[in-house]
Design brief:
- By secondary structure, the protein is α+β, with helices and mostly antiparallel strands.
- Strands 20, 21, 22, 23 and 24 form a 5-stranded antiparallel beta sheet that branches.
- β16 and β17 form a beta hairpin.
- It starts with a helix and ends in a 29-residue tail after the last helix.
- The N terminus is likely disordered.
């Protein structure tokens, strides 16, 4: 029986014992900065520590009670404690919680705990007395991050996101094929969406641990920034710095020490400054706004504006700009000037104010007092030449008046003109390059669209140019190059589009993109995209690319289509004189590009004919082979059937010719 038992034991498959003894001591913490006490006070101090740490987790102790899980080393020479202690927990999790909850704990005003795990303490102790610099990281070539600007056709790129896929494509001619448009695609590239950097160098992808930057010809990883649950991203205008913002999910546990906003160096990935949210943790912190040159960033505070310098990432001159009651501010897009709005107080006894402040001197350049204000909105001209302040005033209980205060920033003493409007203002927009602006006013859904100029015959004077009456419009979208504008009826107006030439004051075309949710101009101002995002509409998802005159260039329908973003271009390196010279030679360039387009169309047409001829030749070849086999098998067929059933005289061959119109051209004879 013993032998049988041994055989049975040997036949069993027993897994070897592989568990190793845990020597990490991660369940032990070191508590430093304790009071140095004589032997008679040691027990009292140990009791205080055990009482504190036993609330966090179970402290290890021996069965006979001789070891209480806490050891406090003594200095035998001085006959006193050494000022630190070891606390042993039964598990690692309790030790981790002890570090998190008591590091920085204030025992009294002279003793603030410094708590680390024993493994971390050992690493600190083992640091060599002489510093040895680590080897520099190996340089990795990042490639040409702006290679897309060298495209021979001078095309622009755009990124789209649909379902769980992302695509980057070229904006090509209507005749181009999908393969000619394709640049890059990837599934599950981002968790939520994409964002381009201001100059188009990087595309951002969002992930739960943080975000990543991608760039170069093959869109390789160009940066990683760890900030859990990033909600918002903002670059400095020159792409030097990156701001990530987050706030707590009300359904999850709130981390009181979490960083709400972090400012990073884009190239090195270094964290330059972090801010905690002093308000509600589940709401966004007041956003930072960059100056036009990226030297400063600012945010609204109580009765003040806090301006920080990127030289040291500290408060400018170590103090805020005091503006009691300030509600809103906006940087000039072209100079370091802040426009701030301060509401009225004391039931209208103290007027509202709009103040222009120079940075960094803090000098007040101009201010305007405004009475009986109900609502204010500020609009900077893209080149900082003008500032428009829309003012709605409450004249009586049921009566309002509407006007614009127009500041001329480039003129001496910053003169202000007032433009009265006789109906509610729906929206307002400056022409990006020039002196004109458009405003939509009236009672929806049919409103008036008025165009004004700030210069009349080289004189500073506001003048109405033209009004388009009773149009279904609630948004204004100027081309980045000016001259052309799309007047759109969005949301309840179902995507009505009016393409307008502001130079000749004429309508170029009217159309509709049903349920359109967003409109985006390309950087050149030649093309505009309208799209229906699944974020706001579950049906009719997809996008249409139009030229500036309202002619459809490309129409794409995709289920669960979420996002369309044109890739920005960096500012031009050409001087104003060089750009002026190029504009003079536009007819010459235009003729060259028209000839290139004609050749491309001709090549496409010939390619179509070649494709048809190839299909015809393939068919003829197959037909010839079938006829040959037919004749070879004829004798065998007749023998099997015992009669003549396939004599050629019994069949009739029919040939049909189809004509296809490829193009037409109409010439007018004078």
């Amino acid at each position: 029986q013993t032998r049988d038992a041994m055989v049975a034991y040997e036949d069993e498959e027993i897994e070897p014992f592989t568990k190793e003894l845990d020597l990490s001591m991660d369940n032990v913490v070191v508590v430093d900065n304790l009071p140095v006490v004589p032997p008679e006070k040691v027990e009292k101090l140990i009791g205080i520590l055990i009482k504190l740490y036993s609330k966090i987790g179970q402290i290890a102790e021996s069965e006979d009670g001789s070891y209480k899980g806490l050891s406090m080393p003594m200095d035998d020479v001085k006959n006193e404690s050494k000022g630190f202690a070891f606390v042993e927990f039964v598990d690692k999790k309790s030790a981790a919680m002890a570090v998190e909850q008591t590091d920085g704990h204030k025992l009294d005003k002279n003793h603030v705990f410094s708590v680390v795990r024993f493994s971390e303490f050992s690493r600190i102790v083992e640091v060599q007395d002489k510093y040895e610099a680590p080897p520099p990281p190996q340089y990795k070539e990042r490639g040409n991050l702006r290679e897309w600007l060298a495209d021979p056709k001078a095309r622009d790129q755009y990124v789209t996101r649909f379902s769980d896929e992302s695509e980057i494509l070229w904006n090509d001619t209507p005749e181009s094929k999908d393969v000619d448009r394709h640049v890059f695609n990837r599934k599950k590239w981002t968790d939520t969406g994409h964002q381009w950097s201001p100059h188009g160098t990087y595309v951002v992808t969002f992930h739960r641990p943080g975000l990543r930057l991608w760039g170069g010809e093959d869109f390789e990883a160009a940066g990683r920034f760890m900030h859990t649950n990033v909600r918002l991203v903002d670059f400095s205008p020159c792409e030097t710095f990156l701001v990530t913002s987050t706030w707590a999910d009300p359904r999850e546990k709130v981390d009181e020490n979490a960083k709400a906003v972090i400012i990073w160096d884009v190239r090195t990935g270094e964290e330059k400054r972090a801010f905690k949210n002093e308000g509600a943790k589940d709401k966004a912190m007041e956003p930072f706004v960059w100056s036009h040159d990226g030297k400063y960033f600012a945010k609204l505070a109580d009765d003040a504006i806090q301006v920080y310098s990127t030289a040291d990432f500290k408060l400018l001159d170590k103090k805020s700009i005091k503006l009691p009651g300030v509600k809103e501010f906006k940087w000039s897009p072209a100079q370091n000037v802040i426009a701030a709005y301060i509401p009225g107080q004391d039931a209208g006894q103290t007027p509202a104010r709009v103040v222009l402040v120079d940075i960094p001197s803090r000098k007040e350049l101009r201010q305007k007092n405004l009475f009986s204000v109900a609502e204010i909105a500020m609009f900077w001209h893209p080149d900082g030449t003008y500032l428009a302040v829309k003012v709605d005033r409450q004249k009586s209980k049921n009566t309002k008046s509407y006007s614009f205060e127009l500041f001329r920033l480039k003129e001496r003493d910053v003169p202000i003109e007032v433009l009265e409007i006789n109906s509610p203002v729906v929206t307002f927009a400056w022409e990006p390059k020039g002196h004109r602006f458009c405003l939509v006013h009236g009672e929806p859904p049919r409103v008036d669209c008025s165009f004004y100029t700030m210069m009349q015959e080289n004189k500073s004077q506001v003048k109405l140019i033209k009004t388009l009456e009773k149009k279904p419009v609630n948004e204004i979208h100027w081309s980045p190059a000016g001259h052309h504008v799309v007047l759109a009826g969005m949301k309840t107006l179902n995507g009505q589009l009016l393409f307008f030439n502001a130079d000749d004051m004429e309508v170029l075309g009217e159309d509709e993109h049903f349920m359109c949710t967003d409109i985006e101009w390309d950087p050149t101002g030649r093309y505009v995209c309208t799209y229906v995002s699944a974020f706001r509409q579950a049906m009719e998802n997809g996008y249409i690319i139009w030229n500036f005159a309202g002619k459809v260039q490309l129409r794409v329908t995709k289920d669960k289509f979420f996002q369309f973003l044109w890739r920005p271009r960096p500012p031009s390196l050409l001087s104003a004189d060089k750009e002026k010279d190029i504009r003079k030679k536009l007819p010459e360039y235009s003729a060259r590009y028209l000839e290139e387009d004609r050749q491309a169309r001709e090549f496409a047409e010939k390619a179509h004919l070649r494709e048809q001829q190839a299909k015809r030749d393939e068919y003829d070849k197959g037909e010839s082979q079938r006829k040959k086999l037919y004749l070879e098998w004829q004798k065998e067929r007749r023998e099997l059937r015992g009669c003549v059933t396939d004599d050629e005289d019994e069949y009739e061959s029919v040939e049909e010719t189809f004509e296809e119109l490829l193009s037409t051209k109409e010439d007018k004879m004078l």
